[in-house]
Write a structure and sequence with these properties.
Radius of gyration: 19 Å
Largest sheet: 6 strands, mixed
Order of helices and strands: HHHHEEHHHHEEEEEEHHE
Number of strands: 9
Structural class: alpha+beta
Helix content: 25-40%
Bound molecules: zinc ion
Strand content: 5-15%
Strand order of the largest sheet: 5-4-3-8-7-6
């Protein structure tokens, strides 16, 4: 057992990721609060110590529009989950000046609520901590990230073939896309999930949130100066928005999350113009976390 070294193990696991974290930190001081946590979550996701032996049981007879994890059962080991939760709470509580109460929080309950994106259940778990609800919702997602990434990798071969997935939400975990990629020379549009890193192709003119295809109702906001490649796709039917960027190849899982953090100003521009992200997840996932 190497528990005492666990924290050290998470420092600078991936030189590219570490470099990108430095850039994001310089350009976006407001992201600072989360960077260490994101870095630790991807280091955790990269080790198979805790999550590689999670046992995933998926249901094959799912409703046609249900993501793969719907009604799935995932068995995880208790101690590594508690250890990772403790680490997440410690990393996130640094700026609070006060300590969360990790031992009173049931790791599997929080994991299940986070994977299902059930904010009410996350908030209920949060009543036993001294972390404010909006913060705990982010913490819960970072806590669930290594397991979701592990599921995403494991299920990559089970995705609906070609363009068989028409929904705007992630075919694996049901989340709305974190961003859209315009990939390669052909500039094909791929939606990417920041939780499980899954990508799915979608037509250029189609709102992921409401399915709008009328080009008169779809548009984009571009930054006024400096950066010209990134933009925000907006839909005037549902007032939804998703950030978009050109890529040469599929973004690495950590790039999705760091690019999301690095483009908060684009987000603010969209919010200022009355656009918003849907309050509810794309699909009300029902997944169960049990102790192995
Ligand atoms: Zn996903
Ligand atoms: Zn829409």
């Amino acid at each position: 057992m190497l528990w005492p070294l666990a924290k050290r193990r998470h420092l600078a696991p991936n030189p590219q990721l570490a470099q990108r974290v430095i850039e994001v930190r310089q350009e976006n001081p407001e992201a600072e609060r989360w960077l260490e946590l994101v870095e630790a979550a991807f280091a955790e996701a990269g080790t198979d110590m805790a999550w590689g032996d999670a046992v995933l049981t998926i249901v094959t007879e799912r409703p046609v529009r249900a993501p793969i994890l719907h009604q799935a059962q995932i068995a995880v080991r208790r101690r590594p989950a508690q250890r990772w939760l403790r680490q997440v709470l410690e990393l996130a509580a640094v700026d609070h000046g006060e300590r969360a109460v990790p031992h009173e929080v049931e790791a599997t309950a929080l994991l299940e609520a986070a994977i299902c994106q059930d904010d009410d259940r996350v908030d209920a778990v949060g009543l036993r901590t001294n972390v404010d609800p909006p913060t705990l919702r982010v913490i819960a997602q970072m806590f669930a990230l290594p397991l979701l990434q592990t599921c995403g990798r494991a299920l990559a071969g089970h995705l609906p073939a070609g363009s068989a997935w028409w929904e705007g939400y992630c075919p694996v975990c049901g989340a709305w896309p974190t961003l859209a990629e315009f990939r390669g020379l052909e500039r094909k549009r791929w939606l990417r999930c920041g939780r499980c890193a899954t990508g799915w192709e979608m037509a250029w003119l189609r709102c992921p949130f409401c399915g709008e295809t009328q080009h008169t109702n779809l548009g984009y906001l571009a930054p006024e100066a400096g950066e010209t490649t990134r933009k925000v796709e907006v839909c005037d039917s549902c007032k939804g928005y998703v950030k978009a960027e050109p890529t040469v190849r599929p973004l690495a899982p950590w790039e999705i999350v760091l690019d999301d953090l690095a483009t908060v100003p684009l987000e603010v521009a969209a919010l200022d113009r009355g656009y918003h992200r849907p309050e509810r997840p794309g699909f009300a996932l029902e997944a169960r976390i049990v102790e192995a």
